[in-house]
Amino acid sequence: MEKRVLLAFLLSTLVLVGWYYFFAPPTPAPKQQSDQSVVAQTQAAAAPESAEAGVENPVSEPSRTELDIMPAAGAMSLRAESAQVPERLVRVESPFWRATFSNRGAVPVSWTIHKNKTGPPKELRGTDGGELELIPQSREILEMLGAPLGLVVTDDALTKLLNTTTYAVSEPVDTIELAASESRELVFSLRAAGVEIQKKFVFHGDRFDFAYSVEARQGNQPLEVQTILGPNFGDQSVTETGSYIAGPHAVADVAGKVQRIQAQNLSPHDLNGRINWVSVDDNYFALAFIPHEPVTQVHLRGAVHTVNVKGTDLQRHFIAVAVPTPSGQVHTIFAGPKDPEVLAAVGAQVGRPSFEHLINYGMATTIIKPIVDQFLLPVLNFTYKLIPNYGVVILLITFVINMFFFPLKWKGSVKMKQAQAMQRKMKGLQQKMKGLKKDDPQLKELQMEQMRLMRHANPLGGCLPMLVQLPVFWAFFILLTVSIDVRQAPFFGWINNLSAPDKLSLFGFELHVLPIAMCLSWMAQTFVMPAPTPTSTDSSQAVQQKLQKILMGVVMPVVFTVLFFWKAPSGLVLYWMFNSLVGAGQQVIINRLTHAPEEPKTGSGKASKAKRAAKPAATT
């Protein structure tokens, strides 16, 4: 999520605080491909160094055959020996996901997820309603950046051959079906021209992570290889990203600090340091590499590809990471949803507790993450079991949170109204003190009276209860942008996806109903705030206050709605709209019950003397 979203939230909250501040006393997925098309694609998935960026969309172009990929002259013997192994596709299916591997390069060419392990049981689909494909199906992108889990070495010709040669497969069957409690091993082997490669995968039916190891030798010496993560592992049917739906990222734990690198405008470079894990992900899904021992460097590369969406050419940014893969070590690969419970389990299993920080909780992660993981998310899913509609659940939780903080809001409003009631008294005391000398005993008494008024009616005392609420409201805001459970959850009518903007088609136009309703509710909340108490009879002050109320009650809601919420996910807008409505209702109740705040009683004899001493001075 971009920083401007946090800015929008903070500024909109400060509208409420600022209202009192101004008036307070001045003091104080694409369709599934056939086996033949997938085979043709893997034939053309060469090494990253073999292609140029900026090619056109290849959907209508025929796939190239093996004859199109000509190895270097010194590698012809390796091509001749590997030609004896026929090309195959091997599917690995679990209750939660399905991966299709090609023995050409020993890489996955398709990875789909059916459902999550935790949370309410539901089918996971792509944004386009099709299968949730997580691997790019563009031949050009795979040529530019390499196929997922492909190998890279220092020799470009050898790199190309390792990713275009057919490997021997340990499994004779074409489909491996895993039960929830079952584990299976899949091994790809290549031996030719003095090069020996063995890629081993151990899959588990009830997990999204699997064991991965590479044995690589050239002659009698170990061969240093790197494994490719990406490019752009995630929902491939997502074509547009923005403030609320994060685009492709590389995320890494470098010396205990999580770094996030956007694919946009990325130039090839190395990331150095003690790297505990690294991933390529989108808003909801990730392909992560957790090395057996931390590595000291990974290499990042990016590319730009043009796609056509509804007749419009759009540029998509892609990112891939090459991770050193020492031979003889068993590493962990994670390919699944960014679910807090799932990530925490994987991190605990491999001894990398920071792995759950793969989810982006924003800049205040230390505060927000515990609120989301330990409070809001369990409450959200528990309530969903009782009321199986996330839209209704969002409304209910928003109402409960507001009622929980209602005593604080009440106290803050009382403090604010007491401060407003004391404005004239404070101004009167200031006028009296102007004509007194510093050594005048009456000055000291008036100062004590002023301190008493400030203690009982400090406007900052009304702001603090509102600030206490901010972490909870912001945490709920964050939850609705990253929760895999809320993703594609329907509400009612035309709102069939709470993770996408609502669009109601009416007479050929797309109408965003929720943002408009949110704007109106925001205005209502602003206008039910108590009117300030005038400190003088000057008419200019009343005009100024009226203009300020129009600015914060009309202009700001409209501007914020257009800039920040017009294309926001409907779940977020629903939350903000109802939060404003409940807040407005609470303010109406407070206004009716606290319309005439009493003046704080004198707490000391000296203060009483000050009040008596002030009377003669007022008549002089």
Q: What does it look like?
A:
This protein has helices at residues 3-23, 35-44, 76-82, 139-145, 156-164, 340-350, 365-386, 390-404, 406-421, 423-434, 441-456, 460-482, 513-527, 539-565, 570-593, 605-619; strands spanning 89-93, 97-102, 107-113, 151-152, 168-169, 175-177, 183-192, 195-204, 209-218, 221-222, 226-229, 249-254, 257-262, 269-281, 285-290, 295-309, 312-324, 331-337, 504-506, 509-511. With 620 residues, the protein is an alpha+beta fold. A hairpin with a 2-residue loop joins strand 16 (295-309) and strand 17 (312-324). The radius of gyration is 32 Å and the shape is elongated.
Task: Give a short overview.
The protein is an alpha+beta fold and 620 residues long. It has 16 helices and 20 strands.
